[in-house]
Every structure is written in C-alpha cells, then in structure tokens.
Amino acid sequence: GAGVSQSPSNKVTEKGKDVELRCDPISGHTALYWYRQSLGQGLEFLIYFQGNSAPDKSGLPSDRFSAERTGGSVSTLTIQRTQQEDSAVYLCASTILGSLAAPTEQFFGPGTRLTVL
Amino acid sequence: AQTVTQSQPEMSVQEAETVTLSCTYDTSESDYYLFWYKQPPSRQMILVIRQEAYKQQNATENRFSVNFQKAAKSFSLKISDSQLGDAAMYFCAYRSANFGNEKLTFGTGTRLTIIP
C-alpha cells in the first residue's frame, strides 16, 4: 500500500512569504506528527494530531507556525512570514495508536526541504 | 524533559566489519521505548530496531542488535557484517510509555560511512 506522502518535495521561498506544507498519512492512521530537521540536527517534534485535534502543540517554535488536519487524514503545516532560520526539512509521520504493551511504529514521509532566501 | 545524546557525529567501517554506534539518554521515567532509525540520502526515516525498557533481553534484528543498559541509560547499536547499503545517518530516539502521545525525541545523529 501507499506510504506517507508529502508535498512539495522541495520549496524555495523568499523571506516574509507564507508557505504551506502538506502531509498525506497512511490510510487509517489516527495519529499524525510533524517534525523539523535542521542542518546538522536531529528531528525536533513540532505538533501531534489525534484525529483532527492537536493535543500537543508544544513543539511549534513561534506563532508563525500553525497546522491543521481535516477529515482525520490530510494535514497542512503553515509557516507565515518565513524567516531564514525556518530553512529545514519538515517531516511528517503517521501511526495507529497502539497500546502500552504494543507500541506501534511511526511511518515517515520523505519530507519537504524548505529553503528561505 | 527527556534528552537523547549521540556523541559520534561520524563513524566509518570497512565493509563486512562490525561497528557500534553510541547513544545515551536522560529520563526520570521508568517505562519507555528506545529506537534506532536509519535515514539514507532519500530522507526516508526507516525503523531499524526498537527496545522496550521493561525487557531485559536486548533486541536483535538480523545483522542489527542493541546493547541496552538501563541503569547507565545507554542504548548502543551494533551492526555486524556491514554492507554498502548500511551507509546512512542513524538516529537514536526515545518515546515515553505514556499512552496517547507517541512523539519521539531524537539525538543529533551519527553519519555512518561504509568503506568498500
């Protein structure tokens, strides 16, 4: 079956512009995560969705960042008034929430590389 | 908050040899999960192996095995019979056992080069 897909694969934008990054999770996966990978860094958690609600937004770095998920499926990460420090790879992952005895694997998409000039 | 540390930014190994990647973590929780992910140049994160903290036995997946030392908060990855396809960034990750939010906390990664 199809894995997690993200679009666009690469995005170059000018400082101050708004960008939207899209994530299509695996069908039926209830949980969706956004991570950011800056150059030379590990992945940094941004936000988590369970269904259409976001119980944990603690990783969003500023109020310029927002995300939504509709229909329990597609998610969009929006960055307003982009800054050069926003340049990074943005990765999305999805999973079916398991149980304490059976943790489930997060399946990652290929990411969107964002470059802010 | 939990932290994950990978102190080896780069490692290299001869093809067919064995290499060990280090990872330490800090947590006050008693129950959690640890993972090793591989990220090739395609950027796709691939789960290599995982370990449940409540299990004393070290996890093994074919040529990949871990040395989990709970008291020392250490979780190293051993790759045996290294192959060219093993070349990638390797990330160690931590996940709380609290049900409901399975967000991962990652280390900064180790770039593994395989020498033919």
Task: Walk me through what this model shows.
The complex is a heterodimer of chains A (117) and B (116). Chain A has 117 residues and is an all-beta fold. Chain A contains no helices and 11 strands. By secondary structure, chain B is mainly β. Helices cover 0% and strands 52% of the residues of chain B. Chain B starts with a strand and ends with a strand. Chain B is globular. The interface between A and B is medium-sized, with 31 and 27 residues.
Keywords:
heterodimer, A: 117 residues, mainly beta, 7-stranded mixed beta sheet, 4-stranded antiparallel beta sheet, B: 116 residues, 6-stranded mixed beta sheet, globular
Q: What's this, in brief?
A:
The complex is a heterodimer of chains A (117) and B (116). Chain A contains no helices and eleven strands. Chain A has strands at residues 5-7, 10-13, 19-24, 31-37, 43-50, 53-56, 65-69, 75-79, 88-95, 107-108, 112-116.
Topology:
The complex is a heterodimer of chains A (117) and B (116).
Chain A: E1 5-7, E2 10-13, E3 19-24, E4 31-37, E5 43-50, E6 53-56, E7 65-69, E8 75-79, E9 88-95, E10 107-108, E11 112-116
Parallel strand pairs in A: 2-11
Antiparallel strand pairs in A: 1-3, 3-8, 4-5, 4-9, 5-6, 7-8, 9-10, 9-11
Chain B: E1 3-5, E2 10-14, E3 19-21, E4 24-26, E5 32-39, E6 46-52, E7 60-61, E8 64-69, E9 74-79, E10 88-96, E11 105-106, E12 110-115
